[in-house]
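User: Predict the full complex structure for these chains.
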Amino acid sequence: MLAAVDAPTSVHIDAQRLWSSLMTLAEIGATPKGGVCRLALTDLDRQARELFARWAREAGCTLRVDAIGNLFARREGREPALPAVATGSHIDTQPTGGKFDGNYGVLAGLEVLRTLNDHGIETWAPIEVCVWTNEEGSRFVPVMMGSGVWAGAFTLEHALSAADREGTTVRAALQAIGYAGPTPAAVADGAPRFGAYFEAHIEQGPVLEASGRTIGVVTGALGQRWYDVIVTGQEAHAGPTPMDLRRDALQAATQLMQQVDAIARAEAPHARGTVGYVDVFPNSRNTIPGRVTFTVDFRHTDDAGLHRMDAALRAAVQALEDAHAVQVAVQPVVYFPPAPFTPELVARVRAAAGRLGLPHQDIVSGAGHDAVYVARQSPTAMIFVPCKDGISHNEIEDASPEHLAAGAQVLLQAMLETAGRAADEPAARLHHVLHLGRRRARDAVSAAPSTSPCPPQLERHQQQRP
Amino acid sequence: MLAAVDAPTSVHIDAQRLWSSLMTLAEIGATPKGGVCRLALTDLDRQARELFARWAREAGCTLRVDAIGNLFARREGREPALPAVATGSHIDTQPTGGKFDGNYGVLAGLEVLRTLNDHGIETWAPIEVCVWTNEEGSRFVPVMMGSGVWAGAFTLEHALSAADREGTTVRAALQAIGYAGPTPAAVADGAPRFGAYFEAHIEQGPVLEASGRTIGVVTGALGQRWYDVIVTGQEAHAGPTPMDLRRDALQAATQLMQQVDAIARAEAPHARGTVGYVDVFPNSRNTIPGRVTFTVDFRHTDDAGLHRMDAALRAAVQALEDAHAVQVAVQPVVYFPPAPFTPELVARVRAAAGRLGLPHQDIVSGAGHDAVYVARQSPTAMIFVPCKDGISHNEIEDASPEHLAAGAQVLLQAMLETAGRAADEPAARLHHVLHLGRRRARDAVSAAPSTSPCPPQLERHQQQRP
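Assistant: Here is the predicted structure of the two-chain assembly.
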């Protein structure tokens, strides 16, 4: 299935071994409907971490756990001072989650390690596989907690203090499962950056399946603006109240809900607009609604687009208030800036898929991923593979072994090309090792990990994101 | 305030006594916010019934309780064989109900009795004040239970078997409070019909307040068609799913919701259309809704209009299914035919308001009332008075003493004119006593109460309602 067209392509991952690992990991927290319930920092999470750690040790890796419980399996490189070329994802799941979300990124990374071992390949840069803590956020918020602390999106203390519904804090849960590690969690506190970070993930959307392509070359992640909207009218009896004396909050709200959709379509194909949550008060069959609360989720590839969507929403609100006897309150609740990935790494993923003869296309990530936070501190790219019917966060989440293997093969090639085969000539190595990573490595040699600002190259990378 | 323009007008109700009775009754089940919580067939309901019964006995009435707990206070007429001229309403409330809904109709009736006593007036026909069981339906369904059994809308057994959330049946609750009465509950089982039935009620809507009028001359009750609508699309991640690959159940549903409003406005001022209840699945901020369930409440003054609204809804559903990749299921759940009240009695209410110099207007009842069921078996009319901001079923429900007194005065005059003053000439009496009631009385003399079909006059009345 995987065409061997040049030297790197001759190194093949073991599709069956990857699938078998996925199925074995999925037994921990398996649900009767074929999914997985493995909430972050539960004993099931511990069991899954132990399984991964055993596999990684068997593959010759050393392990490191940081203060937020992120787990790093390291396969040493010929030049240990080079920043690692890393991959990974998460192994916590939604309460009714599937077998592939997150788990695939971690085990595709494991499969890369194992394949390098199979072929006795030494890389110039170290290889690391990351298991980021609590990506899902089902038990503890904020979501993408481990990578968020690493990247400085919020502080370690903020994350450790988060409590679940029973009042158990992240700090206590980490200690309970033995994953309150000794190394710094945040780059700002000295956690090492990566020379490059690749994350393989099921698409969690319908685009690849609809286009019939196997590999999504992820160019970046959509920026997001979330809002809570409250429309207030006057509840009244449905029977006695004539149409012209109503202040129906729901009828007004439906106009705004439609605007959310229309605003996103006006920015197609770069935007999304979704009303996912609606609460109607008093929600009684024969009472005109007096208050409707709903959410708005806007996403766009670039920040100027998000600004236009924000302005359009506020104009729609104003027009609605002018036309109806209702009040509308719009409360912004979340802002994630768009996160374009690193063009050199994106190009490397694209080229690998091309060399392998795999149908591929550029795609944006609409969802959040650990890679989106990692991209704030290190060069990053992602690889998507199709999932059945675009369904994720669901026990029926499914993906084909062939697609999963193809994604892991692309991951292997992109990582290997970036880390550099030590068997290659030193001169060739310069083409392979990401220049950003190399410069970072020189910084690391000349200075211990510090809380100093990003090196100039990373600052430039940061500034690319508006 | 009340202008005396002819003989009946010289008989005035006691506004202060009426208000005082309302406030005293409102103490039973009073809530801290100034409302009343007195659910049907609770001990509070028993206390309220006992208070009314004591007042009625003090006013010289005999009391009768039927098998569904309906309570009738009877002031005998000169001709006891004549069918009673009745009034009343209910004294159960919503969990967060007000002081006036229902209670006003019962106590306005009591005030009529007391005023007749004050003036030593004997009527040809007996006067009865009804306390109908469980009009609200908050604890037991169906709503308007006592009048519904009386009128044959459903069987006594069906009503007695209804259970509340704790599993207590109406049968058990009636026995517990001592109101499982001995007389037949249904007209079909021999419960006497009325010569005429008048019900005074707060409007529970904004029309009278908006027009600045004191008396609503209720010409009938709107027919109702209720539906459950389920729109099924496909839930999906809000981020990864492009706008053109969505099957967003909520966006489709909002179009139907707007149609519900538009369909009613197209029939203005005769119709109402309301979406009061909405359930979105899975109702998560960043998930495109896969299923939306909502209710439709259509009301119209005539059945042909209801049919047009039904057809328009189904056409809108068809158009939506054709245009969107969603399925729509429409399930009718309730149908009440329009219930025009008896023109002679409506005219009598209108004339009384006119003679009293009270600003009045014709109005339809959008809500259900015991009178709507009573109208299926006896000539019926209603009198509305304004309530503050049109608000009812709420602890802040309010009405002015002046308006309540005006409604009771209209009630007194309409009832007195219908029952006939025994002091008047016998010839005059023929003008006063409703001819339908007189014929019914002759039937009653020639035959014991039976389960026989309606007399011809009532059949005709029934047939007026399509």
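Confidence is low (pLDDT under 50) at residues 1-7, 430-434, 436-466 of chain A.
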